[in-house]
Specification:
Layout: H1 2-18, H2 21-53
Length: about 55
């Protein structure tokens, strides 16, 4: 999931360099959403593994 966030971030940067603001904004928002989902899942997984070990 983090890989997809990085890919969309790179697409957003490349599109911004060429001036495609609509594409850049779309790719940046997708990357942001995927990054937040990744963080939430990573924290949930960490907490779940800590509770399960007890």
């Amino acid at each position: 999931m983090l890989h997809y966030a990085v890919v969309f971030f790179v697409i957003a940067l490349i599109a911004a360099l060429f001036g495609f603001t609509g594409i850049a904004a779309g790719a940046a928002s997708i990357a942001q959403i995927l990054f937040v989902v990744f963080i939430v899942l990573a924290i949930g997984s960490f907490i779940f593994s800590m509770v399960r070990k007890r």
